[in-house]
Amino acid sequence: MGTEPINVPIGDLPQASYPFYSRLARMINSGQSRSIVIAGNIYDLYFDGQAYVPIITFLKNKLTAPGLVQITYELNGPVRLNESDRNKLRDAWAAWKNGSTVDSMPMKEVLQDGSKFDLRRREFDQYLRDAIGNATQALEFLRQLTICSRSTMRDNLLIMIEGADMILPAGDGDVSKMNDVQMRRIAVVTDWFSDPEFFAGRDTVLLISESVSQIHSRVSRLPQVLSVDIPSPDTTGRKHFAQWHVASSSTRLNGRASNAPPIEQPIDMIAQATAGLSLHAMRQLMLASDYAGKPIQRDDTTAQVEHFIQSQLGEDVIEFKKPEHTLKDVIGFSKLKEFLATYLIPRMQLGDDRALPGAAIAGPIGGGKTFIFEAVAAELSMPVLVLKNIRSQWFGQTDVIFERLRRVLEALEKVVIFVDEADTQFGSVGEGSHETERRLTGKIQAMMSDPRLRGKVIWLLMTARIHLLSPDIRRPGRVGDLIIPVLDATGQDRIDFIKWMIKPTGLTSDSLIDWLDREGLDVNFSSAGYAALRSQFKAIPPKDEEELRAIVYDFLSPAIELTRRYQTLQALVNCTRRSLLPNPDITESDRAAMDAEIRALELQGIR
Q1: Are 493 and 333 contacting, i.e. CB atoms less than 8 angstroms apart?
Q2: Which candidate in 47, 218, 516, 572 could, as Cys together with 520 as Cys, close a disulfide (CB 3.0–4.6 Å)?
Q3: Which of 9-18, 36-45, 162-171 is the least confident region?
Q4: Could you tell me how far CA 361 lies from the centroid of its own chain?
Q5: Domains of the chain (ranges, CATH numbers)
């Protein structure tokens, strides 16, 4: 799991700080749990005081102590332990099977004689061989070793099981669909961890998996089983790695040492710019810089961060958006643009609890919501992640994707999460919704209101169906702090749209504009409609005003007027700022009238 240690001199480099390790050590030393899942960023590198090493090597080096026997196991691999511990365990096994103890006088006599002992020693060696390629046998053997340890040894066992998600896969949680081998493994581990003598003893088992949800729930949800989450490296951790890399006396180039001096690197800039990267990915970036003989550029880190995050989450889950237009390019929406520039953007740029957690943007389909708030994202000058589809068809994989997403967001310094069609991404948490949907929506809601992410993660949720978003998402403290309606243009905004629409034709007389405003275009003509006509005018320019009027007359809006009206009403009744409404002096009777119209449309089957 990982790579070989990268050994270089470190000089006076301070020790790296790992809160997850401190928590793990407290659990083990206090006996709080004897079965612990290590989850999270398990495929990265960790500093053990001398080198950056994979997590298993890090744990083995850090947890080394007198009287502690370390055993590691992975699927299709052997049960690994050092030679002295192997001999110690072999003797303890033989003593246990012969009903004696290592410290007893009869046992010492048996050791001297040897004739009664060799059979049990050979049995131990045979179990070690049989465990290779047979995970079920290996688990049962390890369980027996903990019984042996309690009976015949003063030393404690620390058993580390790599790839626990492959040995004890979650599946769909239904035991009846498991094969006999899987059921046997689940039964072995459940009996093992549920044994009162085991969790009252001194031996510890660490299950290592990227996600707790990838381990079968019969094991992971046992009350005796606790978990320790390893986060992605923060700024301090990335800075430590960069310092360590630069402090090395030589640079590795294509697997061989170079006598070239280390490249001068702006350490603080690298630590900031590589937010979101694992140390493995950061190492790739720095090695490429060493090879080229040039300092790392901002464009290099941006490209590496984008590549790494997409590789972790999948291109079907997220993408990086780089809007090139700003609010100056948005036609119409004068009052909304003023609000965005003077209130929304300044509050989102704050880095503490004064920042908005996000905003929900509601309004009818084709109203321009996405275009406007892409411009907002560009104004914010932050990385923009577009959340496309966080659900997976595979059982438990949705939870894994969410956990990866959360680790990425916690590691980034500042990020905008852009969710189009948010009502299809985050549904209800009620009884009628699927368990996966309820769990996902609940986790997203908790993340939106997490004070640790306030000022770091900004949510922009676009939806034409604001009423289908969970009420818990729409409450204050989440995106309910600000629900913004994006409505069809009226007044001068409508005139601006018309002028923009016909500009490619060169036909811009006041009489034509007046005709388009009063007669040619529907009262509730959408932003998408203006864009569609403009595109047609650019493709086939009309020869004169008469032909332009004929084109407009020929253009029919689709039969979605009632649906758009319903969505407009929902945006109005859910709006959280009077100043953003067409009539800021709205009364309760006005709201009641809108509610009544909504109910009437629903009776017609409009949703």
Answers
A1: yes
A2: 516
A3: 9-18
A4: 23
A5: 6-230 (3.40.50), 237-308 (no CATH), 319-485 (3.40.50.300)
